[in-house]
Amino acid sequence: MTDIDTLIANTIREDVRAGHIYNVPDASGYIKLDAMENPYELPEHLRQELATRLAEAVLNRYPVASYTTLKQKICANLGVPQSYDVILGNGSDEIISIIATATARQDKRAVLMAPSPAFVMFQRSAQFAGMDYVGVPLKADFSLDRAAMLAAIEKHKPAVVFLAYPNNPTGNLYDEADMVAIIEALGDTGIAVVDEAYQPFARTSFMERLPQYPNLMVMRTLSKLGLAGIRLGYLAAAPALLQQFDKVRPPYNVNVLTQVAAEFALDHIDVLNEQAAQLNQARGELASALAALPGVTVFPSSANFITLRVPDAERTCAKLFAERVLIKNLSKMHELLANCIRVTVSTPEENSVFLNALKASL
Ligand SMILES: *Cc1c(COP(=O)(O)O)cnc(C)c1O
């Protein structure tokens, strides 16, 4: 007879048994401002055209594992330097996990480092790959603590340092000189991954610096630009380095429907960029309206979300939830984020529902 609890105890890792499933709240009936999605869809005529292309996708065959056309379109449209290449991931979440898997060496515990607070998948991927995770606190204004980062690099000799640019959950861009100091300090002992998930909104990038720093990799995603549903991320780096990560990538990790949809979207990237420009405009307006409220501190954002501090985050989130608006309470994530909340910038209508509910909560 098999006892299921004994079976689990005998087979599943202790840290997995002690852990939790990544929680995504059910959003049906809610205005969803908690996941940095683009609220706009493709225009109707493009959706029709996409439907035709999807209908032609070859579903009975495995994807062509080289993904040559899609990769070429990414390189050509998204500023990847000449002679630099990309690998693709099922979202950049998968790329983070690929990076951890390839750097979690077996002869000693390797370290994955990031400023803190950071995107939670850095820590989760490090843990599941069997790496030690080191988070180095940001300063109170969410800027990089350059001295602390350099000291931590010296002490822990990380195999990888993730720098989200702009950072999630804080929204700000780090100082370029601080980032360069970190990349240079890592030299040939560590890889710097600049996570540019919000690049369509930040309009600044480390991509063109790839030729300058052989230990630099730039990771991006189509999710925040408006294609969160298709799950496509990409990683750019020098071919020799990139190849090592390609060995770890599951061969057919990007499905044919994603491939078709992404190629189509890249042919119409101007539509998505226009939506991003609109959201940037709305971010400015929302930030000004929020900053005018008593007791509210708005942090500068270069992403499609705004992080703000309110007098009582618990109360504000409860009020918003009652008004059917989902946002993220960051309070418990990190001591620097006490009473902070994060809201995705959306359509003018949804932004004003949020703003009014927030006002009522103060
Ligand atoms: C959203 C986000 C990602 C994940 O993107 P996917 O491609 O959807 O997996 C990666 N990094 C940061 C900083 C993010 O905010």
List the helices and strands and how they pair.
Layout: H1 4-11, H2 14-18, E1 31-32, H3 44-55, H4 68-77, E2 85-89, H5 92-103, E3 111-116, H6 120-129, E4 132-137, H7 146-156, E5 160-164, H8 176-186, E6 191-195, H9 199-202, E7 216-221, H10 223-227, E8 233-237, H11 239-246, H12 256-267, H13 269-291, E9 297-298, E10 305-309, H14 313-322, E11 325-326, E12 328-329, E13 340-344, H15 348-361
Parallel strand pairs: 1-11, 3-4, 3-5, 5-6, 6-7
Antiparallel strand pairs: 2-8, 7-8, 9-10, 10-13, 12-13
Helix pairs in contact: 4-12, 5-6, 7-8, 13-15, 14-15
Pyridoxal-5'-phosphate is lined by residues 36, 91-93, 119, 164, 168, 195, 197, 221, 223, 228, 233.
